[in-house]
Every structure is written in C-alpha cells, then in structure tokens.
Amino acid sequence: MASKEASRTPAWSRLEPEGRSPPQNTYSVLLPTYNERENLPLIVWLLVKSFSESGFNYEIIIIDDGSPDGTRDVAEQLEKIYGSDKILLRPREKKLGLGTAYIHGMKHATGNYIIIMDADLSHHPKFIPEFIRKQKEGNFDIVSGTRYKGNGGVYGWDLKRKIISRGANFITQILLRPGASDLTGSFRLYKKEVLQKLIEKCVSKGYVFQMEMIVRARQLNYTIGEVPISFVDRVYGESKLGGNEIVSFLKGLLTLFATT
Amino acid sequence: MTKLAQWLWGLALLGSAWAALNVGALGLELPAPCRDVLWPLPAYLLVAAGCYALGTVGYRVATFHDCEDAARELQNQIQEARADLSRRGLRF
Ligand SMILES: Nc1nc2c(ncn2[C@@H]2O[C@H](COP(=O)(O)OP(=O)(O)OP(=O)(O)O)[C@@H](O)[C@H]2O)c(=O)[nH]1
Ligand SMILES: [Mg+2]
Q: Where is this region: Disordered (chain A) (predicted)?
C-alpha cells in the first residue's frame, strides 16, 4: 500500500519536507542490575511513566548478572507486564562487571541513542526528556547528568561524603580539564556510534570507566552537553563498590593524568 | 601531549624563568627589592593556590544542594509504583 501511495505521488512533492518525515529516534535504556530486586520494578515503572508522558520511542534493556536475590525473576515478570518489545532481558550467567555489561547490552540495542543509568533509583527517569531536549538543542554527541551544576545536587549524603566528592571533583577538574563537570556520574545519553567508539577505546574498569569515557570523548572531539540532576542515594539494597573506592579513584585519576 | 607532560612543561618554563631572574642570567639583572620579592615567590604562590583550593572546595561543599524535594517526590512515586504494579500482578 505504501508503495502504491509513493508511485502515485509526483516526484516534486517528495522533495517537500512534510512529504518525508525524518526517521523517528529510538532511545535504548541500558539497566545493568546486580541484586536490585526491590529497585528494578520501581525504576522500570518510572521509566515507562516518563517515556509515555514525553512520547519518545524507547526500549529498556535489562542486563542482570545472575543476581542471587532473584532480580531475574522480577525482570521476567516485568517483561510480561510491559511486553517484550519494551523490556528486553539480556542476562549473563555471573557477575562480570559494569563495563562489559554496557557492551553486552549495547549489542542488543536497536535504538540510535543509548541512555545509561543505574537501576538503584539514584538516577530519576524524569530527567531523560531533558537529556533528549538538550541533545537536540546542540546536536551533542553526549549529554551527561551533573550533580555539581545549576540545580543539580544530592540527597542522603553526610558532610564527609560531600567533602570527598567535591574535593575529588576539584582535583579532577584541575588535573584533567575534561570539559564536563561530573565525571564519576553514570547517568548519560550517547549517540550509539559514539558510545561504541568510546567503549572500544576505554581500558579501565569499574568506577574509573565513567571518568575515562568523558576524557576520551574530549580527545576525540565529541561534544558534551550537561543537564543538572538530583542524585538520591539508594534506598534499597547495598552498594557494590567497597571501601577501596577512594584508592581506586586516585589510581584511575593518576593513570588518566599520565596517559591522556 | 599528555596532561602530565603539559604540567611538567608549564612548571619547567616558569621554574627556569624564576631561576634565571634570580641569578641574573642572560643579563636579566633585577633591582635588589624586586629580587627580594622574587626569591620566595614560589612559596607564596603555593600557599595562595592551597588557600584557593580549600576556599573553593569549602564553598562548594557548603552550597551543595540537598535535594529534599526530589527525595520526597521519589518516596511518593515509589508508593504509587508499588500500588500500580501490584494491581498489574507483580509479585515483589
Ligand atoms: N550487570 C551488572 N550490574 C552491576 C554490576 N555491578 C553493579 N551493577 C549495577 O550498576 C549500577 C550501579 O552500581 P551501584 O552499586 O549502585 O554503584 P554506585 O552507584 O557507585 O554505588 P551506590 O549507589 O552507593 O550503591 C546498579 O544498577 C547496579 O545494580 C555488575 O557486575 N553487573
Ligand atoms: Mg548507585
């Protein structure tokens, strides 16, 4: 039917802008989970709510690393509730780390934009429409959420954690001049091909990975837009990053300082 | 050039300029009062940089937004989400 339509349309009218609307963007949200049984249904609900209200095309890709708490079971229930076109389960057998979880998820993403966020409710889906608007505004390659600018902020942090966070950020800004204010946050939107290129280039693991992504992005002359976000400390479940967080941060920072 | 190399270059440049002026190399003879100021200048700069760092970090810690509203909103939405999901048959 569509081809019939097209053949009847005179050639000149096909040149008109309304004759051919641009292909619709699709946003693939990558949700890596490890023991997020309580958080996963809530974050998915909030994602669905945000996307239905804003009307953008989306899919949610859940990458569970064999969580012993039964996250996978909840994910399967969510798949049934919301449909397997919206919720895609791409589990792995065992805990293989965040970086490879993103690579694994991206292989299965059909969208032309990828949104990366934590599943622990620290990152609120209500900011996603703002990310998308920001991206369109400057055709940015990356849009990064930032806790350190404008109305951005945190909830549930004591003074010590604030000092460490601000101090680490200050040192990072001085040493790396990365062109983005929040390097350790992981709430970001990428053009798919940009994320692919960046992941290929990045060598570090875990926490430092987020930082390296932005540093490499600057090296490759990708443009970065920023959106202030509120970061609410996780309510359920426990942090997967242990006590040597500061040590590994410093190691990573110095490595990037000396190699990029 | 890596960031480390940039820093080393910058420091080397400033350092050699400072040393040259101090010893009066290359015929750069400074009047005595100037040299008295120049000699401890790196120490002053270091202290100033330290104060700037502490001041900036302190100010940013003090003005770090506490997102009380966001936390409250999230709590309400969690209740809403739980109710809605239970209705749709999710077993938590
Ligand atoms: N698939 C997968 N997901 C992971 C792994 N480690 C962490 N995650 C998920 O990645 C996200 C971020 O991990 P968090 O433990 O919240 O790390 P964080 O945000 O730095 O620390 P807290 O929020 O303080 O707990 C969460 O959604 C985790 O469930 C992993 O090895 N595999
Ligand atoms: Mg978290």
A: 1-25
